[in-house]
UniProtKB/TrEMBL annotation:
The lineage of its organism: Bacteria, Pseudomonadati, Chlorobiota, Chlorobiia, Chlorobiales. This is Segregation and condensation protein B. The keyword Transmembrane helix does not apply. It comes from Prosthecochloris aestuarii (strain DSM 271 / SK 413). InterPro entries: ScpB_csome_segregation, WH-like_DNA-bd_sf, WH_DNA-bd_sf. Keywords: Cell cycle, Cell division, Chromosome partition, Cytoplasm. Gene3D superfamilies: Winged helix-like DNA-binding domain superfamily/Winged helix DNA-binding domain. The keyword Cell cycle applies. One of its GO terms (biological process) is cell division.
Length: 206
């Protein structure tokens, strides 16, 4: 490996390390401004991961949400969950989880569509998911009233460690994922109002 290749790998490593979300190869190329291609970024990531493996590091650079992100190896997950566990745990909202699943598998979908599937107003859950950045507005439907349509975001892919929507697990598997305590804490905040009341609030975006 030449000195120039070493410097490029260092820069790529630094960009990914400093980012709080998955970094696309195109963005890395743009930041480097040195004529590095996406293929060369991928090669550099593979070389870095080989070094991490050989040296017994606790992390790797993973390809998720159409980008790269540092992640600890799976064997250390129980340790980190224990470290990050809050003193008080609250049960994950089943309604938020169900709405997230509907949006993930039916997107783009409106609030009225979600209500038709679930039988109750999804307003609280949709607002919570929007707040957490797991879904966003994808436009308006051509139906009467032109209701807003919702879909999942790159943050959703990142959070569930998915490369793309093609990697979506079966519904029962996403329920298992969402029982993870880190996800519980992300979806639920200490300042929430009574969820049961929010579940039945009426009113839709038009």
């Amino acid at each position: 490996m030449t000195e120039q290749e070493h410097i490029v790998r260092q820069k790529i490593e630094a960009v990914i390390f400093a980012s709080e979300e998955a970094v696309p190869a195109s963005f890395i190329c743009q930041v480097l401004e040195s004529g590095v291609s996406a293929a060369e970024v991928d090669d550099a990531v593979n070389a870095l991961n080989a070094f991490y493996t050989q040296s017994g590091r606790a992390f790797r650079i993973e390809s998720i949400a159409e980008g790269y992100r540092f992640m600890t190896i799976p064997a250390l997950a129980p340790l980190l969950r224990k470290m990050l566990a809050p003193k008080i745990r609250r049960k994950l909202s089943q309604s938020v989880l169900e709405v997230l699943a509907v949006i993930a598998y039916q997107q783009p979908v409106s609030r009225s569509d979600i209500q038709h599937i679930r039988g109750v107003s999804p307003d609280y859950a949709v607002n919570k998911l929007l707040e957490r950045g797991l879904i966003d507005v994808r436009g308006r439907a051509a139906s009467v009233g032109k209701p807003l349509l919702y879909g999942t975001t790159k943050e959703f892919l990142d959070f569930f460690h998915l490369s793309s929507l093609k990697d979506l697990p079966k519904l029962r598997e996403i329920r298992e994922l969402a029982r993870d305590k880190d996800i519980e804490n992300f979806l639920m905040s200490s300042g929430d109002n009574n969820e049961q009341q929010g579940e039945y609030e009426k009113g839709y975006d038009n």
